[in-house]
Amino acid sequence: MPKFAANLSLLFTELPLIERFAAAAKQGFKQVEIQFPYELPIEAIRSQLEQHNLQLILINVPAGDWAGGDRGIACQPDRKTEFRAGVVLALEYAQALQVPQVNCLSGIAPHTVAYTEIEDTFLENIAFAADMFEKAGVKVLMEAINTRDIPGFWLNNSRQAFEIIKKLDKLNVAFQYDVYHMQIMEGDLINTLRTNLEQIAHIQIADVPGRHEPGTGEINFPNLFKALDAMGYSGFVSLEYNPVGQTIDGLRWLSQTDQ
To answer: Are strands 139-143 and 55-60 parallel, antiparallel or unpaired?
Structure first.
């Protein structure tokens, strides 16, 4: 079975973020990820990780004004300075907390800007992030998001992501494959993973529809996990879903998985 990690931004939300580390450890997790850890001081996070013997394996670069509707800003030409300031902040957290991977969200494409300028901006920003994080031994990830949940999200399919990775030609740039988003946008999950595994550094899961735990929708997760084992996937599979009810109740599928 894959190595499972808990996304503390979506799981255990019955508790304040600072208390979710303990909750995850109590359920047997050894690795966690946080979308945006910046509401907590570095020392507070470090203390929780050490106290509960946890590894923080992934964070995101700040995504702009999330409450105001931003879903990342890496593709927006007029916000390069803001994006790069976010990279500096993310690097500070990644270095201090020994986070091996940082995700950059492209965001929603501006309607008044040509596709080529948007793509050039994204390439430039990811290259900047890759060079900054390379010095710290950190991998930079990009994630495709479905346009049903976030209309206009620029990076929205795996083919597009793999083409960008090829253009960048940076050793520390890879794809974060989110099963939920890719099932909605393109399906063909196992074949895509098998064909492109060397460019995929991290996997996140949620079922479709609803973005809830495995077993609530249409994806055959037992087959997916068996396929990942057969491929020799060595990275983490993170639980990035919204539990239908209480988080612990929603983890029953995991206890029934043959690990």
So the answer is: unpaired
